[in-house]
């Protein structure tokens, strides 16, 4: 469920940039640019989405994301942890295991990803089936 706010959404484009100066296009706003850069990295969106299912161990993530290698998975997890979007917990089992879980901030993207999923179902799948 998406909760609508009476506040205006943040602008997608910066107040300054080529369009403001009479150019051909506008510059993305800094927040949108940041999230697009993050999600645009290979595997980041898949790892982030997988973590939405709840706490998961590194080995389970590795098995659950076909095609990802240990180095890339570790890099993406470290990045999410460094940004405060996920937590890393070492579990003192035999063998030692590492569990990852989204923080409140990391999980807050769920409504946006749900909207993107709906958009993809409505537009990308139709474009693919019509050859466009």
Automatic annotation (TrEMBL):
Transmembrane segments: none annotated. Residues 25-128 form the HTH hxlR-type domain. Pfam families: HxlR. Keywords: DNA-binding, Transcription, Transcription regulation. One of its GO terms (molecular function) is DNA binding. InterPro entries: HTH_HxlR, WH-like_DNA-bd_sf, WH_DNA-bd_sf. This is Transcriptional regulator.
